[in-house]
Write a structure and sequence with these properties.
The termini are far apart. Helices cover 62% and strands 7% of the residues.
């Protein structure tokens, strides 16, 4: 019997601490997504039709890397960098 509130992830119960980490990863992904152009966001939405809020845990890191690469290419294309 589960005594604490948990979220089920891939068939396993997730602790509150892991749930907070998961939420943070999705927040980072959302911030990166917001920096992409509308056509790039549309492509992302086709790749991940469930949206960022419901993206599976195992797909968050690759999605973050995809957005980071896209943002970096946009900066290079526009002649700007950090």
């Amino acid at each position: 019997m589960i005594t604490s509130p948990t979220q089920v992830l891939n068939g396993y119960n997730m602790s509150k601490s892991l749930e907070r980490i998961e939420d943070f990863r999705k927040q980072v992904l959302q911030e990166l997504y917001d920096q992409c152009t509308k056509p790039q966001q549309d492509l992302f939405d086709r790749i991940h039709p469930t949206g960022i809020r419901h993206i599976p845990s195992e797909k968050i890191n690759p999605a973050i890397l995809l957005c980071e690469r896209t943002i970096e290419k946009n900066k290079t294309k526009n002649g700007t960098s950090d």
